[in-house]
Amino acid sequence: MTLPTGVPEFSKFSSGSAVESRIEAFTRLSADDRQALAALGQNVRYVDSRRDLISEGDKPKYVHLVLDGWGARYKTLPDGKRQIVSLFLPGDFCDLNVYILKQMDHSIGAITRLKVAMITPDEMTRLTHDRPRVTQALWWHELVTTAIQREWTLNLGQRTAYERLGHLLVELYLRLRTVGLASNGRCDFPLTQNDLGEATGLTPVHVNRTLQELRRDGLIELGRRHLHIQDIERLKSVSMFNPNYLHLEHEGRHLDANS
Amino acid sequence: MTLPTGVPEFSKFSSGSAVESRIEAFTRLSADDRQALAALGQNVRYVDSRRDLISEGDKPKYVHLVLDGWGARYKTLPDGKRQIVSLFLPGDFCDLNVYILKQMDHSIGAITRLKVAMITPDEMTRLTHDRPRVTQALWWHELVTTAIQREWTLNLGQRTAYERLGHLLVELYLRLRTVGLASNGRCDFPLTQNDLGEATGLTPVHVNRTLQELRRDGLIELGRRHLHIQDIERLKSVSMFNPNYLHLEHEGRHLDANS
DNA sequence: CGTCTGGTTGATACGACTCAAATTTGGTGG
DNA sequence: CCACCAAATTTGAGTCGTATCAACCAGACG
Question: Which of A8, A165, B93, B117 is deepest in the core (most CB within 10 A)?
């Protein structure tokens, strides 16, 4: 079986090589490395939109790798409040080695229909043993993922609604761009205003009003599952976006934050 | 040089074995494992209270291990706002493998005077090569750290000021207890109300008022750098504290959340 | 004993929430 | 192609939690 090339459901962007793109944001891969990565796509699973891939309390058995679609990690409080704590885009791995833990402390749900590879502990062991460059890249991925989590903490703790939403949109755009799913300020954008609220700690009503402000200020167009960032430099500026936490400055690639 | 046993500055609790305690929360160690851990204490550094151990923009060269004292990871916004994104207690490692990254995207500062071990990439490589049990424990530590980061995201996004502070106090108490620095609801507590504000995304004034509420409700005593949780079960309950994210249920240890 | 840091109090302002309803969009089947 | 329905978005009015600003106080320290 070769690297999956599934056709995205509502996109003109190809995500067939998202995994490679993601890893190559950090390092160049050899043919063998690519081979090893492709081999991870053996055990594929599909999850329908708005269904869970894995739920809080479950025993994690695999490392997951998103081949296509968007997912969300979320936690639920006894009083019913939900917080999306992170978003998964094509090419994203869930935590390496999760299977060490006895049970999941959160759930992972599908925003769109999801195509994920399930990687066994054995496969992970083999990979880290045989392919040091890929292993280093996975480490980089892991460090970036936790850096994003920290930035979200900052986002929720210190930014206003306006800044928070602007920041999130820029982050998602840049992340999509590194896997070839965005360009020219445009990308598919399947999150509802309710999702945005759960990710930013705002009510859907307030998300709505704040998005209108961002539109009114000529920063974005957002609707019909599509985002257009009209002036990314200004959006970065008003949301105090500093791309350093994405650690994209490796191997001289992705140095240009524009376009 | 043996495992450091430094005497804490204002504590009756010993933190000499915090590192072992932390690791043994996950797994039992062999004599060789202990030896290997102790050997990490070769390169020790002290950082005065309120000074930085490492700053945003620096090139990370070492993995840090907190031997004594409290530290904080924080991020600063261009408008001057600060957010503490995580706290380091004795026995905590900073991110394994950080030195892969080109530069720090945040700073680490000392709350109290800090005693830290600086672990070189070589040492890390040797450790993970020679001591698989320790390596697994470090992985567990890494996964727990990011789980805590997610819980903070939830905390900031969905809990009220009252719940947020209560939750943070319970978390810190439990974390201190697993390294032998807390018992009977009591622990040293060097955070100022300003620190608490920066960790919870609240203003110091509101922290002050909210702490008064927690006191008034008979949940805590807090002052003179000392915390006493009077009714931990009730505090857990009102702050919707679910200890699952600390993943302490290994090897049958630390099952009892009381005392 | 004065200085400084951290803690406390009061008055006022505002950002975000709540609740409720209307409107638009997208998908489905007749 | 249109009628229908559910989901998502939008609007309005009123409230509340937390921020802001400005003092004041207490204990630690030199």
Answer: A165
